[in-house]
Every structure is written in structure tokens, then in C-alpha cells.
Amino acid sequence: MEPSRPPSLGDLSWHVAQMCNAGSCVAVATNGNEFFIGDSKSPEGPILAYSRDEWTTFLNGVKRGDFDHLA
User: Fold this and answer.
1) In this predicted model, what pLDDT tens digit does every residue of 48-63 receive, in sequence order?
2) Closest CA to 26 of 50, 3, 48
3) What is the C-alpha to C-alpha distance for residues 47 and 69, in angstroms, rounded to an integer?
4) What DSSP letter does each residue of the chain carry, written as one string?
5) Judging by beta carbons within 10 Å of its beta carbon (0-12, 13-18, 19+), is residue 28 exposed, middle or buried?
6) Domain-by-domain residue ranges, the chain?
7) What is the pTM of this model?
């Protein structure tokens, strides 16, 4: 995981959870096989970039409850 900037942030379609409270949420976008994570309060960055494999591994961990102890 390293800070990154996709070629054009404005060309990405950002998504936040439906339960996003007052814009203080994690924003996620994709561009091919890259997944980008940002802060909805700071749309200009910083942005973290992940490969499809890294993103899939993370999502599987969330579904398994691997991060539940952090909430």
C-alpha cells in the first residue's frame, strides 16, 4: 500500500457506503485492475492504490470478520 494518484481523479467514479454519515467516509473507485481508496472529505487526495488481488484479499478478510476487532 503506497500513496498514489491515478492519471485523472476526476475521471474516476467514486463510491461510498449507503450509510455514509455527513461525508466522512471511505471512497472507493476502480480503473481497470486498480482499486483506489480515498477520503470523501478530501477528494483531491491522498489516494491509496491496490491491485485487484490485493483488493479481493481485503474484501474476503472483511467478509470473514478479520477486522471486526478494530470497530
Assistant:
1) 999 999 999 999 999 9
2) 48
3) 25
4) -EEE--S-GGGS--B--TT--TT-SEEEEEETTEEEEEETTBTT--EEEEEHHHHHHHHHHHHHTTTGGG-
5) middle
6) 2-70
7) 0.75
